Amino acid sequence: MKFRFLGDGDCPDWLLAEINTLSRLTSIKIKILGQTVAKYLAEGELDEEKIKKITQDAKVELDDAKAMVAALELIFASSARYGVSAADLSSELQQLGLPREHSAAIARLHTDHCPQITVALSAQSLRVSRLSSVEVLPCDNTSPFSMVSLKLKKLDGSEESSTINISKDDVQVLLAELRRAKSLMENL
């Protein structure tokens, strides 16, 4: 069976197992746990003490608590990524075996936190080292190759230089392609 909140893919077996574990909690505890996970996805800080308190009250083992957090994280992140409506998410979670009250609570949280989660996911995507400069180094005229120095600015702020040998004819093609890639990425 295909699920929209999973990108029209099958449900992983581990998620099915965690749906069963989530079903053992009350809908109020699911709501509190879901709020904590959604806040973590949107802001980046996980309140581990709150999770421990919720899961200890429900007599859930630590490993199961971690797995429930991972399941909720997948549900919220995937549903935000694929733009699933709250009604569809609730329906699909019920098809997977989550009780109606639980799936309704998760769907409400999805509605409340989806815009923030989407913004956070967009900020995290496509982040690699940035090209800070391209420099063609002088080379003797007898060589059929030019040396090109590429400076990459890493996410931590440090710069790394790489030098490559490329044919003189291909230097202009490389520069044109790099400019085209830069303009495409700026338009995203």
Give an account of the 3D structure.
This protein is of the alpha+beta class and 188 residues long. 60% of the residues lie in helices and 14% in strands. The chain contains 7 helices and 3 strands; from the N terminus they run ααααααβββα. The chain has helices at 13-23, 27-43, 48-57, 62-81, 86-95, 100-124, 168-186; strands at 130-137, 145-153, 159-167. A 3-stranded antiparallel β-sheet has the order 1-2-3.
What brief labels describe this structure?
3 strands; 14% strand; 188 residues; single chain; 7 helices; 60% helix; elongated
Sheet with the most strands: spatial strand order: 1-2-3
Radius of gyration of CA atoms, rounded to a whole number: 24 Å
Distance between the termini: 33 Å
Give me the count of strands.
3
Quick check: average pLDDT?
83
Topology order in helix (H) and strand (E) letters:
HHHHHHEEEH
What structural category characterises the helix and strand content?
alpha+beta
Please tell me what the overall shape is: elongated
Compact overview of the structure:
With about 190 residues, this protein is of the alpha+beta class. It is built from seven helices and three strands, in the order H-H-H-H-H-H-E-E-E-H. About 60% of the residues lie in helices and about 15% in strands.
